């Protein structure tokens, strides 16, 4: 990462030539070489003149903001959709026809303008929503900017500048870091001021603990975790002071590379499976509409274009513009009927309702289509730290000395969070702690730099999670009996007990933790007048080798014999096999030469430090999600762990949570990121049966794994909480971030955020996603079958040559308003009980199978026959099925006359009687041919009412794909019954509100006419029940023919 591969003087001469980071590996050079290469000394820093020159070369130390799309381009992108283009074309044509027909005026004029205006309104709302989503999609890049440090302490011109804006740093600057500082750039550690330096870089590398840094160079090919002498922009100093040399700034830093990867991933975002299917449906619909419109045009061309044959050639052409316009309007109506205008709104509503259900389960969905995509998730790629584990360390077991030599006591500790009230210690002698347990409590409280606070109803740690867990243990252990200081502490203090111990025993000095020594010590002046060294050790075996005595519960300290040593080691081994991190506690009298101890392992006092006379062990456990992993296996969802942590730790965790079995051979399924990149057939490796583990994984490894999975046709969900996860969260189908422990970068890059940081919440969300998708299929099929019926109605009208039964604005009303509530209510269908026991659907599964298409073609044809049939019945029959239709006094005619209505003006002696509709009377004395124009209003109203009624009854058919209404009655979804009532209510509104009736060109119906509507509509239920019965009989055959292809794809 270090720059400086070219001579610095040459760089300054050229003025614009930047250093290639791969020519000089700062982490592999000692500090003097780095200073020489960057032309700087740690004592003086860069000169002001030098800084100005380097600013011209490198620019500011900040992340680039990509040029955003113009508002014009965003608007154009919203119309890059097949269905939207069809709707736009229909709206434009309708508007033109409204002007052409303007001379008609009156009711027809108003009606003609309503339809294009509504279509334009739909398009405008769709564009506004799309633009809003687009402008909010890239906040991850802004969040990355916020993670950068704002100020830095820099040495320049021999003077220390304590608060220089971090963006003004250049390669070669000398920076001082202290505890709590956020690292402002990628830097080489050149000198330690304190004895140790620890950096929390888990958000960048995925490591679960803060790592120690040193000035010693490492190998050139070291991975990011192995660069022990480098600190990276955006990470935090948790312990120690140091002097660093800036090697990379801005986009050249590791966090800058993540920024670039997020941009790249954002450019490769793919449509969700549902969006792909809807796009395919739109393209197919375009072809179908085109073909049907052309067919309707050809069928009716004889009505507006005629000619005579003279000498075998067509001559004397006659063209009727009025009739041509009329049949063109029919094709527009056909397009309106075929487009499910209400479908986008209903899908959005259903997904929004799904997000509310998921929010109740602590899964916060940021992007609506993610709800549907969850249903076909086949792979969950999970980070370990903070995801499969909570990253909240908690003590699970305490092992202490017994009442005599050769005995141990073991206490189980409940709770998994930093809340001291979360659980208790089983069989704990509350208020009666013996000397041995009191010493453990003192070490846990005093040999500890962490703090636990309550923030927004969450208990959070300031410091290392392991140390915070020990503080929480101290609180659960409680006060010793007879404490006089207990009453002086505030009741609201989260760490009351720990503060009591700190007041009783005064801490004098700290011997900082060192990863090589694996211990931390504090010198304490006890209230008894005795000065002791309290030690907390990670490597329990090492301290046990150097221990000479043990402390029993009566405070006696007999010698540590081999039997007890073996007993302790066996206990340590048993706990370590359970993926528990084990710590040892010890104490010793402060040696006389300890005053000069500086933390060096070569200091004479170091051996004394590791030779205490007491031993007690304490273990800290992580919270796991074994049941959630088992649920994934049942649901045929594979879990893959990708972590930046070391291989052995990750393998232990994976065995514990059930990704691997305890005694399973995982040599071929557990690889480091580097090892995976060297695998010849990477896709075949990812196809192995069972869980997979990739440790020491860098962002580029995660991105490559996700790319390979998606190329192999998998639907991938990725969980993560750190900056190192952000680019992969962008790239996958479903990015899932942690709500509590996750960085803002990860949250903004994600599609879903887990409010409780619980992996099992993902499994619950997948189940909800499957249920939502099943319900979406129900209402999509319902709406499409309705559109098929409308198309069939218009096609039959044109094919039979009868007057137009329904006008476009009526079809638009049905598609948007009356169909909307039942379709939305179908989203509340109860989920199947075995929904998480079935494999996920394939992303290429057809939304509409051939059998379902056949079913709805049959239903659609019936809708067409019913709506056209009732139109013909009104004109040609005085009664139907015993229902009297002559009460309004309208004139009857033969079917032949109705089919040739265009020739009405040539009929001799053609007369019609006036008829009534509600309070209106329609008379045609002046022009009897108006009976087929204005006079068709009653027949048109009957057709519209039959269409609405059939679609309401058809929504009952959509409750189940193959289940009969006998086994799944309508009341299993009461929302559907309510929606049907609302839709019928809306339909009655346009009947009986005069203005609405005028706009939609309809009139009120009498009781007999409503009985006719029901008689024609109800058979749709019987027809679909027969089709469902056939579907149940043939389901085994249909699914067996699909199984081989599914199996082949899995293999």
Automatic annotation (TrEMBL):
It is a multi-pass membrane protein. It catalyses: Ca(2+)(in) + ATP + H2O = Ca(2+)(out) + ADP + phosphate + H(+). Its main location: membrane. It is found in: Membrane. GO terms for cellular component: membrane. GO terms for molecular function: ATP binding; metal ion binding; P-type calcium transporter activity. Residues 25-99 form the Cation-transporting P-type ATPase N-terminal domain. PROSITE patterns: ATPASE_E1_E2 (PS00154). Catalyzes the hydrolysis of ATP coupled with the transport of calcium. Belongs to the cation transport ATPase (P-type) (TC 3.A.3) family. Type IIA subfamily. PANTHER family: CALCIUM-TRANSPORTING ATPASE (PTHR42861). This is Calcium-transporting ATPase. It comes from Eruca vesicaria subsp. sativa.
